[in-house]
Amino acid sequence: MAKSNVVKAQGTDLFFIDPDSHQVKNAGCITALSGIDTSIDQIETTCLNETARSYVAGLATPGTATFSINTNPQDPVHIRLLELKNAGISLDWAVGWSDGTSIPTAVANSDGDYEFDLPEDRSWLLFEGYMNSFSFDFAQNAVVTSSIGIQVSGEPVLIPKSSS
């Protein structure tokens, strides 16, 4: 029996804000997205008179997110992604969940930086990071794909779809 309280991956979009044009771009035909996470470091607090180690939570260490695309050298967004990776520029990213189809826009904040303006009829996962890899994969009887790594910076933020 199918569950109705799940969110399917099909219909997910990955967006970024282009730092030059301040426009929101869709990364295109992504085929996988994973690793948007932070792990909590441990700080040891064990005293010498104890027989087992003890710890408290330390800093959050962001991981490396990875997404895959069916690469097309005629797609200007794919070319732009490679240019931004080569420049080492940190970007704002937004994952639009499949519980909606609205597209975000970019607005200037009080500091003059651009950030996402997110429609409330879709769930969002926001994070910041720079692309640290952009590999090209050529295989027999397959389309050309790329696996793109993003070094996440800071804590990802999940914004659920509005219930109204």
UniProtKB/TrEMBL annotation:
<protein>
    <recommendedName>
        <fullName>Phage tail protein</fullName>
    </recommendedName>
</protein>
<dbReference type="Pfam" id="PF16460">
    <property type="entry name" value="Phage_TTP_11"/>
</dbReference>
<dbReference type="InterPro" id="IPR032495">
    <property type="entry name" value="Phage_TTP_11"/>
</dbReference>
